Amino acid sequence: MPYRWTEDTAPDDSGAVSHRLVLWPHRSLPRRGFVWFIGATMALVSLPLIAVIGTAALWPLLVFVAIAVAGVWFALHLTYRSGHVHEVLRFDARSLSLVRRDPGRAARDWTANSFWVRALIRPGPVESYLVLTDGRRELELGAFLTPEERRALSDQITRRLAALR
Fold first, then answer.
1. Of 8, 24, 48, 127, whose CB count within 10 A is highest?
2. How many Cβ atoms from other residues are within 10 Å of residue 89's Cβ?
3. Residues 54 and 122 in one domain
């Protein structure tokens, strides 16, 4: 799952527990796979050029092949940039905070009293839309997760919040 839970115990002797959840989007193509994919694309697109080696037609075709491979490179590079999105949820018995970081934007954060916060699955723009609500405001969480992951995460957050009360 593209999220990780960590728990911290307060440094004093109170025994208070603090939960931290970090969420990030899926990375279906790692950097090493990216290199292999670009290499394979270049090799397969260059195969038809073998027939025109030594002719005047090679150079115009080579330009189009280079533009096609550069386009694929650029498109995949943009998807890696979107992979830098991540959300950090921290909560203990008194407070809850959520920070969302997107590339090219300032961090957005939200805080509330954790006693009033609930994790709910609602109908929304995506299936199993996960929101955190304190009764007055709603905040989306993990929009980049699959519906099954959002349902499982909602259950986990609900159990951890209930244990703190």
1. 24
2. 24
3. no
Q: Is the same domain home to 16 and 35?
A: no
Assess whether 36 and 62 both reside in one domain.
Answer: yes
CB of 95 closer than 8 Å to CB of 27? no
- Shared domain check, 92 and 160: yes
Beta 86-91 vs 17-23: how paired, if at all?
antiparallel
- CB count, 10 Å around CB of 19? 20
CA gyration radius for the chain?
Answer: 23
pLDDT digit string (tens) for 84-124?
788 999 998 889 999 998 877 888 999 999 899 999 998 88
DSSP type of residue 93 = S
Buried b (16+ CB within 10 A) or exposed e, 104-114: eeeeeeeebeb
